[in-house]
TrEMBL record:
GO terms for molecular function: metal ion binding; oxidoreductase activity. One of its GO terms (biological process) is small molecule biosynthetic process. InterPro entries: DIOX_N, IPNS-like_FE2OG_OXY, IPNS-like_sf, Iron_ascorbate_oxido_reductase, Oxoglu/Fe-dep_dioxygenase_dom. The lineage of its organism: Eukaryota, Fungi, Dikarya, Ascomycota, Saccharomycotina. PANTHER family: 2-OXOGLUTARATE (2OG) AND FE(II)-DEPENDENT OXYGENASE SUPERFAMILY PROTEIN-RELATED. This is Fe2OG dioxygenase domain-containing protein. It comes from Saccharomycodes ludwigii. Belongs to the iron/ascorbate-dependent oxidoreductase family. The keyword Oxidoreductase applies. Keywords: Iron, Metal-binding, Oxidoreductase. It comes from the Eukaryota. It holds the Pfam family 2OG-FeII_Oxy. Residues 181-307 form the Fe2OG dioxygenase domain.
């Protein structure tokens, strides 16, 4: 069995039992496994099948019809369209991002007008976010998963509030309401085994060939990820003073019968900023190591959770956070402003 350097927190257990371990993991490693999430193995297996089918059988021309819209982050991302680490090469991966999600009804890729309807915002120019037909046929599975992942994210954030000793246990969750417009993205990703883009293949730099998602931190509040057995590759950089040391995230099984593997959960820049650095936003990447026994592409299913667009990132009423702040206030901004700032940096818009 592979050894596991990360904490496993079972959120189906009593709160008092799990919050100390959760806080320690969030502060020290910024990454942990969440078990007891209640998502059946069968559901996640089906999602991975759907993802594989989409990426490997849809003609490129068809995928490109639904190319990502940089304004809302919804759509298909082609090989080489992202470069998470500006010092390295382009990321050799493809993905599809679902957004404008109503986490109560499960509708996704709504038009801009529909998405903002509940806010009575006057959207003059509508933007359509058409769903590729293959996903439309499987929308129930996708919707059910998005709704459940959002509930799990809220459960985790409530536990974080408790572990930070915030009197109002809903401090974070009341800014994660299911129907309020927000920047959350549900994403399926594929990292092909062989890098076959002529551009970089002639390189002799081992890193250039094997790094599939460059070193980066996530932007949002937290990220929930499913990976598959024997498709390893996710690595963490725990110590910034040792930038060449990377910790492999293993695949582990759930302790609950017939349930999907524990989610890999990590915290993003927004939450790090909001908690004055208390919750760690850890640098990570995807790298295929030379000589490893891998015989297939890597697939991952990722849910990037963002607070409501209008949520003000006001000081967190926790003594732990106050102490870390050392009397300094964070600059006031909304969740949307924070996201836009980070996206600009990645995509050079
Ligand atoms: O696919 C993975 O394992 C990691 C993905 C990731 O870090 C990201 O897309 O931000
Ligand atoms: Fe990431």
């Amino acid at each position: 069995m592979t050894s596991n350097p990360l904490a496993v927190i079972d959120i189906s257990k009593p709160q008092e039992e799990i919050t100390p371990g959760l806080l320690a993991a969030a502060v020290k490693q910024g990454f942990l496994f969440v078990d007891g999430h209640g998502i059946p193995k069968d559901q996640v297996d089906k999602l991975f099948e759907l993802s594989k089918e989409y990426f490997t059988t849809t003609p490129e021309k068809e995928k490109l019809k639904y190319l990502i819209n940089p304004d809302n982050n919804i759509g298909y991302t082609h090989f080489g369209s992202e470069q998470l680490d500006p010092r390295k090469t382009k990321d050799f991966k493809e993905g599809y991002n679902f957004g404008y999600i109503d986490f109560e009804t499960g509708e996704f890729n709504q038009s801009k007008q529909d998405y903002y309807r509940s806010k009575n915002k006057d959207i003059k120019e509508d933007v359509q976010n058409p769903i590729p037909p293959y996903f439309k046929q499987n929308s129930q599975l996708l919707s059910d998963t998005m709704i459940r992942l959002h509930q799990i994210a809220r459960e985790i954030m409530k536990l974080i509030a408790i572990s930070l000793n915030i009197e109002n246990q809903q401090f974070f969750t009341e800014k994660l309401r299911p129907k309020e417009p927000n920047g959350s993205i549900f994403r399926i990703l594929r990292y092909p085994l062989i890098r076959n883009d002529g551009n970089d293949i002639n390189s002799t730099d081992e890193d250039l060939l094997s790094i599939r998602a460059g070193a980066h931190t996530d932007y949002g509040a937290l990220t929930l990820l499913f990976q598959k057995e024997a498709q390893q590759g996710l690595q963490l950089q725990l110590d910034e003073d040792n930038p060449d040391e990377w910790l492999n995230v293993p695949y582990i099984k759930s302790a609950h019968k017939d349930m999907a593997a524990p989610l890999v959960v990590n915290f993003g820049d927004l939450l790090n900023f909001w908690t004055q650095g208390v919750l760690k936003s850890t640098t990570h990447r995807v790298k295929f190591s030379p000589g490893e026994t891998r015989n297939s592409d890597r697939y991952s299913i990722v849910f990037f959770v963002h607070p409501e667009n209008d949520a003000r990132l006001e000081p967190v009423p926790s003594d732990i956070v106050r102490k870390a702040a050392n009397g300094e206030d964070i600059p006031q901004m909304t969740a949307l402003e924070h996201l836009q700032q980070r996206l600009k940096e990645t995509y050079n818009w």
